[in-house]
Write a structure and sequence with these properties.
By secondary structure, this protein is mainly α. It has 16 helices and no strands.
Length: about 325
């Protein structure tokens, strides 16, 4: 067995391959137009295009699997550092309640419309979770719990990134025309838009105060990802009660909670850390998540995507539009 065919070498090469596409996605996201899409979606698009033209890179399979499974979980754990539990519990309880309404509304409505359209149930559920909670990170967190295919997870992330970007641009256009205050607009953005980046993109033009409260509202929805995951675990176990299927506990969720508590009460308070360091950790987290999404994107075959994704997409867009209207009313209360 040569060094190039050794299993460990193949795995390292495969991880490096996902990193390479992630870097290309990062560079592409710096370009005009793609900057609004973000590096996550840009990298997934590149991975999907690669798969269609060159096929699945079998030599890199073990490394790609490692990225899509284990790097994904590691990125979710690091994502916990973005969540300041103390701020949410002290200042964001009202926003937390509104965020809970948004999550329940988005998930139930997306799944309901998906059933009416006879859409792929798991993909509709993923899109409902992504719409209600925090986009790609939420989809990545719940996909192992509900045991979705890698292809469905990647499609879900791509749809969330695209639709969320379109919605955030529309928000910035209509903001000057709306009869609400800047703070109310910030709350509306924070409790209705998909990704954290989408919230920042939409709220920033309304000023620093609007941006701050928008991000606080969004982080409240991220916080609610924790109880949502436990609810889904309970649901899956009851659903599989009469079968031999076992739902393994997502231990990475404990890591997510632990990192949230560590970042909220230890970093900065007990262990001094600069804003530059935290920003670097945030960028590393996003990059690792991007590499994981590349692994998922390489599993996507476009042959069946049109029939599989179109109906869940319609369900998700419809639910997102209705969510925007309902949350607009709630934000103004």
């Amino acid at each position: 067995m040569t060094s190039m065919t050794h299993p460990f070498t193949k795995m390292i090469a495969g991880i490096g391959f996902t990193f390479l596409i992630a870097i290309v996605g990062y560079i592409l996201a710096l370009a005009p137009g793609f900057s609004r899409v973000g590096q996550l979606a840009s990298a997934i698009i590149i991975a999907i295009i690669y798969r269609q033209f060159f096929g699945y890179p079998e030599f890199f399979r073990s490394g790609i699997h490692f990225s899509s499974k284990y790097l994904l979980r590691f990125a979710i754990i690091l994502y916990g550092l973005k969540l300041n539990v103390d701020i949410i519990l002290q200042d964001g309880l009202g926003l937390l309640a509104k965020g809970a309404v948004a999550i329940v509304f988005a998930i139930l409505l997306t799944v309901y419309i998906g059933k009416k359209l006879k859409a792929n149930t798991q993909l509709a559920l993923l899109l409902g979770v992504g719409t209600g909670v925090c986009g790609a990170a939420a989809i990545a967190a719940v996909s192992p719990i509900i045991k979705t295919k890698d292809e469905d997870t990647a499609i879900g992330v791509g749809i969330i990134a695209l639709v969320g970007t379109i919605f955030s641009i529309i928000y910035t256009i209509v903001q000057p025309l709306l009869p609400i205050t800047e703070l109310q607009y910030g709350i509306w953005s924070g409790i209705s838009l998909h990704e954290l980046a989408h919230v920042a993109l939409a709220a920033e033009p309304a000023g620093e105060d609007a941006l701050a409260i928008a991000l606080l509202a969004k982080l409240g929805r991220v916080f609610l990802l924790i109880p949502l995951c436990f609810i889904l675990i309970f649901w899956m176990r009851n659903r599989n009660d009469d079968s031999n299927t076992k739902v393994s506990f997502p231990w990475f969720l404990i890591g997510f909670i632990g990192m949230s508590l560590f970042g909220s009460y230890i970093l900065g308070d007990i262990i001094p850390v600069s804003d530059g360091t935290m920003n670097a950790v945030s960028q590393i987290t996003t990059f690792i998540l991007t590499a994981a999404m590349v692994g998922l994107g390489l599993n996507v075959s476009l042959k069946d995507v049109k029939n599989k994704a179109m109906r869940p997409l319609i369900a998700m867009v419809t639910a997102s539009i209705l969510l925007s209207f309902v949350m607009y009313w709630i934000a103004g209360i």
